[in-house]
Structures are given as structure tokens and as C-alpha cells.
Amino acid sequence: MIVLDTTGLILLGLGHDGRWELHGGKVDPGESFESAAARELREETGLVTEPRAARTVAVAMDGCAG
């Protein structure tokens, strides 16, 4: 997910491999992309937003990990 502040800066997280990355995660069964984005943002950063504030711009499917 891409999170912007009011000046246009992008929120990044430090990954397990030491590289900076966008936040993200899996969509649970029956969950919308927007609800998953809001939940993952809360779980990973503590920031809270409403799912309706999210916009889906791309979806990446990881076939190797199932």
C-alpha cells in the first residue's frame, strides 16, 4: 500500500531483509482490498484509517508462496 502524508512523502517500513519497502499484506477470505489495507496499516504501524479512504491502484499476486 502507498501511504502519503500531506506533503506527498511516502511512508516506508524497514523490511526483515534490511531494505525499505511499502507496507502490505494478505487479504483475508471475504475481506475487501480496502479493508485489508486499513487493517494491515493498523497492524504494521499503529495508524488508523477507514477502509473507504483507501483506493485500489494495483494488486500483486504471489504465486510462488501460494
Describe what you observe in this structure.
- The protein has 66 residues and is α+β, with helices and mostly antiparallel strands.
- It has 1 helix and 2 strands, in the order ββα.
- It has a two-stranded antiparallel ribbon with strand order 1-2.
- The relative contact order is 0.18.
How are the strands ordered across the major sheet?
A: 1-2
Proportion of helical residues: 10-25%
Tally of DSSP β-strands: 2
Q: For this entry, what is the oligomeric state of its chains?
A: single chain
Overall spatial form: globular
Number of helices: 1
Instruction: Give the ordered list of helices and strands.
Output: EEH
Computed Rg: 12 Å
Report the sheet with the most strands, covering strand number, pairing sense and barrel closure. 2 strands, antiparallel
**Fraction in beta strands:** 5-15%
N→C terminal distance: 20 Å
Question: What's the overall average pLDDT, rounded?
Answer: 89
Class from helix and strand fractions: alpha+beta
Q: Note poorly predicted spans.
A: none
List the helices and strands and how they pair.
Blueprint: E1 13-14, E2 20-21, H1 33-45
Antiparallel strand pairs: 1-2
Features:
66 residues; alpha+beta; two-stranded antiparallel ribbon; 1 helix
